[in-house]
């Protein structure tokens, strides 16, 4: 069965396939089998993943399997809760069924972070032009998702808002264009420039406060099999009201800053080291401090122009 | 990881199978396979590892080779600096004293 855009299927077919665990989605280098019975999950997928290629029939072994399910028998019926089950044991905070979409996204992130050995994975946002990528590495709250969303408005392709997937063979970054996860004030900021039609409903009361997702565009998904080399590596830091600063850092320093953001560098060892050195060799790296999204966008676009991106 | 104390007779070696070296800008980065750690090496550390990769040496026999590699005299690069660097490299496992040869 061929993959088709999720939007071509009726909600009932999607819901049935999700319940029976036979919804297979292909995004970039990963195929994902999704399962869950909650209405909120079906609605979320139909909205936020509407352009993602899926088939409602499990024909292959998939890279990732996520079952959004109750943590135990009791919580399936009484004071219902859900957790993401990626097929291996991970600590997961049980969530109310209305937050099943968050459980799904958390489960997908955990699976890629902990199971993927084909690529060196970095916790980073990545966007690309037709010449190369910008890899944005920041701690939570550093503004990488907001900046990635802003760069999308400037015409950059969304590669990923969570992962840099570094290929060991040719040192390119692979797209994995899942929706951009936005928290707190970033939700309204991105709504303002992307438009409300590109945003999911806001999930309130999550362990991380309010969360909403900015949908990947059909063009991002259509080009998800076109990896590109990193040309620019950014380490942004948001400080309320700060004067903007830009500082180029050496390649070895960039290397050492990226290693802690990798979820599998020490597991993979030699191929991760070799490919990371190659990636850093071919890119320029900067630390930027900024006080607003407009400033981070201005700095980044200037640096991108200087890097021929 | 340091096994000290050491003497002038201690024979040091670097296992090239265990360490990957790559040049990056004007430094060398090293990946130590056993620990999984990555290190940035200055030119002296790189020279020490390169000399000890070519063959096990005592400090005294390695010193002139190291100075030759970095093109410095013993006045410019004192024994104290080289010894301190030996010990730092030993600490992180990039070089080690040879068993039974101290």
Commentary on this structure:
The complex is a heterodimer of chains A (309) and B (102). Chain A is an alpha+beta fold and 309 residues long. Chain A has 2 domains: 4-115, no CATH class; 119-306. Helices cover 32% and strands 28% of the residues of chain A. Chain A contains 10 helices and 18 strands. Chain A has helices at 11-20, 39-48, 100-115, 144-153, 185-194, 218-222, 251-258, 265-268, 270-281, 293-306; strands at 4-5, 23-27, 30-36, 53-55, 64-69, 83-85, 119-123, 125-128, 133-136, 157-160, 163-167, 173-174, 180-183, 203-206, 209-214, 230-238, 245-249, 284-290. In chain A, strand 11 and strand 12 (173-174) form a beta hairpin. In chain A, helix 4 packs across helix 10 (293-306) and helix 7 packs across helix 9 (270-281). The N and C termini of chain A lie far apart (38 Å). Chain B is α+β, with helices and mostly antiparallel strands. Chain B has a single domain (11-94), classed as Outer Surface Protein A, domain 3 (Alpha-Beta Complex). Chain B is globular and about 35 Å long. Classes of the chains: A alpha+beta (309), B alpha+beta (102). At the A-B interface, helix 7 and helix 9 of A face strand 2 and strand 3 of B.
- Relative strand content of chain A: 25-35%
Q: How many domains in all of chain A? A: 2
Going by CATH, the architecture of chain B would be Alpha-Beta Complex
Give the topology string of chain A: H per helix, E per strand.
EHEEHEEEHEEEHEEEEHEEHEEHHHEH
Here the CATH topology of chain B equals Outer Surface Protein A, domain 3
Mean pLDDT of chain A: 95
Largest sheet of chain A, described in full? 6 strands, mixed
Oligomer: heterodimer
Q: What global shape of chain B is seen?
A: globular
- N/C terminus separation of chain A: 38 Å
Spatial order of the strands in the main sheet of chain B?
Answer: 5-1-6
Mean pLDDT of chain B: 90
Q: Which CATH class of chain B?
A: Alpha Beta
- Using only C-alpha atoms, the radius of gyration of chain A works out to 19 Å
Instruction: State the distance separating the first and last CA atoms of chain B.
Output: 16 Å
Structural class of chain A: alpha+beta
Q: Could you spell the SSE succession of chain B in H and E letters?
A: EEEEHEHHE
